[in-house]
Amino acid sequence: MLKIAWSPIYAHPLPPGHRFPMEKYDLLPEQLLYEGTIAKENLFEPPKLIERWIINTHDPSYFKKLKDLQLSKSEIRKTGFPVNELLVKREIHIMSGSVQACLYALEYGIAFNIAGGTHHAFTDRGEGFCLLNDIAISANYLLENNLANKILVIDLDVHQGNGTAEIFKERGEVFTFSMHGAHNYPLHKEKSDLDIPLPDGTGDEAYMGHLRKHLEPLFIDYAPDFIIYQCGVDILATDKLGRLNISMHGCRERDKIVLESAREKNIPIMCCMGGGYSEKINHIIEAHANTYRLAQDIFF
């Protein structure tokens, strides 16, 4: 059964005019339910996450400042969010959703968090709409509990997974692979284990060529036993922040390559949703929904 982390708090309202589309976290499950891709039993609300698993990844002093709403104005500005108590609660809920989705992936082969993919959060700070890093927290949870030994992070959001790269820069148990816009945010890129920077305007054919060329050798050379997939849809040509030229079909093909590879190799995969900033919300929802449709077709 496809299990998907979702909570009403995911769609926490932001001030009018804020460019982060929180409404997608309600609209996406509604669309998937409406079309019959999933049923209500596929959705689960994440349980409370013990703080130990957060400070296992993040600096305890940073997490305390975040919880106590003591971040400086500069630190808040870098997150891109108007940090408040409910937003912090939402972020912790998202961390739990990804951890629990990893556990379901071990059971069913694949699982999702409708939120997550917060790859810009560093050990000791938040950036780029990310306060905590669910990818890193989930990977460390699996390693600490001996549920995985070698984790491959496949980050195909248009923005480099800089926080994840920083957190795991000296950890051989986690391999960070980021394919992203070369000239996009963040201005200063961290060093992932494998970075594939793409020029502005990269289209479907070139994108899939890069992905196929670099992904298959990772399965052979690194031999992961778990995958965390950051599948942001801000690679779309319609994305306001993306700068690539990927069609809706191309975005679906990207996901198909990753999910079929995981299924064929029998490697559990947890998918977290990442970014998407197209002007029309239906483009964001359709691109995200394709990932779930593919999961049902390929795994179940």
CATH architecture: 3-Layer(aba) Sandwich
Strand content: 5-15%
Give the structural class. alpha/beta
The helical percent reads 40-55%
Number of strands: 8
In round numbers, the mean pLDDT is 96
Number of structural domains = 1
Our count of helices gives 10
* Alpha-carbon distance between the two ends: 7 Å
Return the string of H and E elements: EHEHHHHEHEHEEHEHEH
Give the strand line-up of the largest sheet.
2-1-3-8-7-4-5-6
Largest sheet, described in full?
Answer: 8 strands, parallel
CATH class: Alpha Beta
* CATH superfamily heading: Histone deacetylase domain
Shape: globular
The Rg value, from CA coordinates, equals 17 Å
Oligomer: single chain
CATH topology: Arginase, Chain A
Low-confidence stretches: none
Pfam families: Hist_deacetyl
Family: Belongs to the histone deacetylase family.
Keywords: Hydrolase
GO molecular function: histone deacetylase activity; hydrolase activity
What does this 3D model show about the protein?
The chain is an alpha/beta fold. It has one domain (3-299): Arginase, Chain A (3-Layer(aba) Sandwich). The protein has helices spanning 24-35, 52-55, 60-67, 73-79, 85-108, 134-144, 162-167, 204-221, 248-264, 281-299; strands spanning 3-5, 43-44, 110-113, 151-155, 174-181, 194-198, 226-230, 269-272. Helix 1 links the parallel strand 1 (3-5) and strand 2 (43-44). Helix 9 packs parallel to helix 10. The longest helix has 24 residues, at 85-108.
Give a concise summary.
It holds the Pfam family Hist_deacetyl. The chain has 300 residues and is an alpha/beta fold. The chain is built from ten helices and eight strands.
